[in-house]
Amino acid sequence: MALEHAILVSLLEKPGSGYELARRFERSIGYFWTATHQQIYRVLKRMEADGRLDVREVPQQGRPDKKEYSVAALGRTALSQWLHEPIEPESVRHDLAVKIRGAAFDDPAALIREVERHHRAHTDRLAHYLAGELRDFTGAGAPATPDAGRELQHVVLRGGIAYERMTLAWLDDVLATLHRIRSER
Amino acid sequence: MALEHAILVSLLEKPGSGYELARRFERSIGYFWTATHQQIYRVLKRMEADGRLDVREVPQQGRPDKKEYSVAALGRTALSQWLHEPIEPESVRHDLAVKIRGAAFDDPAALIREVERHHRAHTDRLAHYLAGELRDFTGAGAPATPDAGRELQHVVLRGGIAYERMTLAWLDDVLATLHRIRSER
DNA sequence: TGCATCATGTAATCAGTTACATGATTTT
DNA sequence: AAAATCATGTAACTGATTACATGATGCA
Fold it and tell me: CA A149, A150, A151, A157 torsion: positive or negative?
């Protein structure tokens, strides 16, 4: 269960409420782990009950009060322990690949639109990552000699960028293949 | 739920038993969708009850009897319908990236072994994919003018190869970063 | 004799998604 | 006046994993 660990990492980087975590899972942390607010609230509650997190009620003006979570000693040791355990290289789940192979039993040309849609989504995501990289790591405002934490954040972001670039190149390949199949029959 | 659809595609390519499907999910289909035999048997039973699959008891000699599943008319239309529905570009779940960011709060150097282990696993997987490509698509025994089905299988496999290559390059980047961090402090 | 392969399943649990629900404030 | 943002949750369901369970054949 890496959601708990992703939450621990995010709260170590900066304490925050369930709502704020849900935001982060749409941004930075969400580049490599997704979660909805429903899931987050449930897990936060459990982790607090288990003593992994501390909560603090923060009254706010002009906004509803929030519960600010931070990592307790137990949470830190849980994370440390997980970091020292080996994990399995993840198994892939790729719907679009299932569709592409399924298209052999249907109309392959009908998939072109869908693949183009995915291409646009990945183009957007890549632009978003690159903007983030410029803002946080390679731009004028970024520190010249980053600490270990920033270096690690950056290498993870570079992974996201490499993934999106690879995916776009592959989607080009898929589109070329679909066009070829359409013109051949 | 793409498991149902992955099963439909696999059974359209070739009918087979739950056991055989479980094998395939460790090989070809498993390149982009994983499932264990427990899951497969459960889903097969449900799909048969829903009329999407036909079953045939096949007596065997020297082996236990098996139930051979094949796609029924209802299954074909279900697949066709799914192929025409748009799906969301998948959300990523990447444990190792969580670990890498978490390492900032622990000992980054301790991750080097783990990353090296992943590197080896991906090297093996790439070799496996490349061997499959040579055997089925680019080698001497492969047909010179493949049909649409084979072309689509090949482009999916090329995606797997591209993914493994990208991952290996990124893991090199991660290792270089971890070594740099270790030597800097 | 013991291990690997073929073959099929149940039960319990955990993780994740979807739908429903509320209510204040701020911006258009 | 309506829509978006901030903020937190419950309930039901679906999907996935882990553990348990059985039994035959074939090979070393």
Answer: positive
